[in-house]
Amino acid sequence: MAAMAAMTGTAQAQKRGEPAITPTTQASGGVIAPERAALRLEHADLAIEVLPASFTLQGRATLTLRTSAPQAVLQIDLDKNLPVSAIRIDGKAIKANQWRNPDGRLFITLPRPLKAGDKVIAEISYGGTPHVAVRAPWDDGLVWATTPGEKRPWVATTAEGYGCDLFWPCLDFPQGEPELVDLHITVPAGLKAPSNGKLLRVQTLDDGRTIWHWRAKSPNPYDVALNIAPYQELSADYKSRFGNSFPLQYWYLPGREEKAKGLFAEFAPTVDFYESMIGPFPWGDEKLGVVETPHLGMEHQTINAYGNNYRKTPSGYDEIFQHELGHEWFGNQLTAANWDDYWLHEGYTQYMQPLYGQWREGDARYAAMMDQFRLAIMNKAPIVSGKIRTEEEVYEDEKGGPGQDIYYKGAWVLHTLRYLIGDEKFFEATRRIVYGRPDPKPGNFKPRFGTTPEYIGIVREVAGEDLRWFFDVYLYSAGLPQLISTRTGNQLMLRWKTPGDRPFPLPVDLAIDGALQRVPMPGGTATLTVPAGAHVVLDPNAHVLRQSDAVDAVQRAGRGR
Fold first, then answer.
1. Which of 464-492 are b and which e, b meaning 16 or more Cβ less than 10 Å from the residue's Cβ?
2. What's the pTM value of the predicted model, to 2 decimals?
3. Residues of the chain with pLDDT under 70
4. How many CB atoms lie within 10 A of CB 404?
5. What whole-number distance in Å separates Cα of residue 14 and Cα of residue 10?
6. H helix intervals, 375-483
């Protein structure tokens, strides 16, 4: 029902003749001009009024920026659908001919040039009809929906693909993350506006409109979110295994209380799983928040979007809720410095799903979920290219990216790495890339950026050996390694065949008449003496990601070939 309501709102917006977004607005991240890369957004104070009746918004963004290089012109990302009406620099209005927005990037000529180390405060007034997300959350923008039954406004934003500039002036690249955000969201009477961080105040105006003031630390640019509806709320205090406490909050639509209570019951055990496996919830000084949205879901820091309509799977838990919560660690606490490292967000979070299944039910559930993931791996492009890329250049395989392999293949790479180095080293490497240290506790870590080369270096340090060969094949190559076995008499010969004949000395387990042994493969080969009549099973517990004729045949049949 939520998807149908969202499509109705989208169709209405399309009838209004909304202009298309430009390639500049559609591209989030990628190669950044030195002047833009030199900017740091210390504070974003955003006053946004959302007007569902006209499908518009009006905003004033006060951006406190510091530069590490000289600047004569500020470059701020903002969709052309939201024209600028006024700009003030350090409190003084500038003339309209001192700014321009030709293609979705605002160029502001400064009254005085900035030197390295200087700070500037830019106040930008803007508004209009924002871009509408046609197929949220895979397409981005505003979702103008109505609630089931009473048909009251139900509004949400998504921005991971096209970026934050769809509804606020920002630095639309991963390291454009603001250090602090204040959100002042004005909504019509009777509606609520849960958002990022801590709620500081709700002000009621004379006409019944309310202004919701939220404050959040270090949200990713695409994490800043608007959510508006006649919400009801469930809340509780969570006592962490690390000794601290923080609020759990779920904002849901009226009339869904019983289902909402069922989902809310999953909050505490799910966060306990993440804290036991990875480490402290990163935003314990704010909240763990979830809001029901007219789209499937998104990892909006401390206010994760949830639109799964309370569906469950044989895993026994709500996989959309569990997945988006995982991004508080992998995506929000640890953020990819370049979209080329996207797999650190999605591969890890996807892997947390079978791990949670294992934590809840044991090895059989884990194996079943990993087997399901294996069928989804396409191997069209390497997970990591080694280049600076936009979000869409990674997420969309039509543009040459790995697409969904950042989820499913990423999860399988981590599964095989865990087999190779063992649980203790695997989870220490995970904590180091997430928190920057092996011993995270509330208060001793900050949000951080990470890269694939850094991760490879951490694994080398923790494992005590250089595993670059492992990542060269699994991350930087498209095809999978093939394990070739040949039996001649009582001799069993094993050989790894890899894309580009890259070195690949990965050991493999064998079951010989039911007896399990791990076979080292230095140089990528091994020869064993095995009784001629013995029954041999290669990798009987499916620890290793490798090419499979059976999987290939199933995938070809699914594509109709």
1. eeebeebbbbbbbbeebbebeeeeeeeeb
2. 0.95
3. 1-19, 560-561
4. 18
5. 6
6. 391-395, 408-421, 423-435, 452-463, 468-474
